[in-house]
Amino acid sequence: MDGCRRAAAQTLLAVATTALVAGSAFGVLMGLLARSKVVAEQISIDLPPGEAVEHSGPANHFHNFESLGGRLYLTNRNLIFKPHKFDLQDASISNPRCEIATVSKCRTLGLMPNGLLVSQRSGDVLRFVVTDRSAWLRAISELGR
User: What is the pLDDT of residues 112-136, one digit of tens each?
Assistant: First the structure.
């Protein structure tokens, strides 16, 4: 019986170590990818004269059951999401600020306090995962619509 416990403990330790190493490697690779020049070029935007970026940051947008990575921009005229090319869908968004009815906090998967819920006057809802959602709420509220 002692040999079975020892084997089970060794297996558990091997699985935990593998998970830790793989998770760390994945995190490092994703960080490098997010900071790469290729991704930066893919998520840059061209704005017409008179439109200026007031706030921006990395974001995920939930669209048709897929989480799309990219960058969220708040300009003096629009809320723009530009996905990077690694996603299966091209779900770019350019939503006029005057069409935003409300913006509120939400939890991602009901757990993580990093979601931003943008309700439009049409009744459509846009869902994003952002860094520092309080700053996003302030930025959208302070700039008016």
Answer: 888 898 999 999 999 999 989 999 9
